[in-house]
Design a protein that fits this description.
111 residues; mainly alpha; rod-shaped
Length: 111
């Protein structure tokens, strides 16, 4: 009976050691795969997420500023059109002075 327990204990130790080895092997394989993928990504010259998010935030801010400036430009154009329209309505045709002819001079002169 003791020999059976001893045998089972030995088998359990061997199995535990094998699982431990497989776990270590798995961890090592994951680390190597991670390293290989990182090298591939570096060669692809991809940006990091934080850099991408920073540029994305800058683009969003620039787009909002652009929209605000476009709105402001349209408002200024409307104001300018209004001012030009006001000037056009305020202009009155100049009254021409009557011209009288002077003796001996064929062209009329202004009073």
């Amino acid at each position: 009976m003791q020999s059976e327990n001893r045998l089972l204990d030995d088998l359990a130790k061997i199995a535990g050691g094998a699982f431990s080895s497989f776990s270590t092997l798995k961890d090592e394989a994951e680390a190597r795969l991670h390293e290989k993928l990182e090298k591939i990504l570096v060669r692809m010259d991809l940006v990091k997420r934080d850099e991408f998010e920073a540029v994305q935030a800058m683009a969003i801010r620039a787009r909002k500023e652009n929209e605000a400036l476009a709105t402001q430009l349209e408002e200024l154009k409307a104001q300018l059109r209004g001012q030009l329209a006001d000037r056009a309505t305020k202009k009155r045709p100049k009254q021409q002075k009557q011209r009288t002819a002077v003796k001996g001079d064929p062209s009329p002169k202004e009073d």
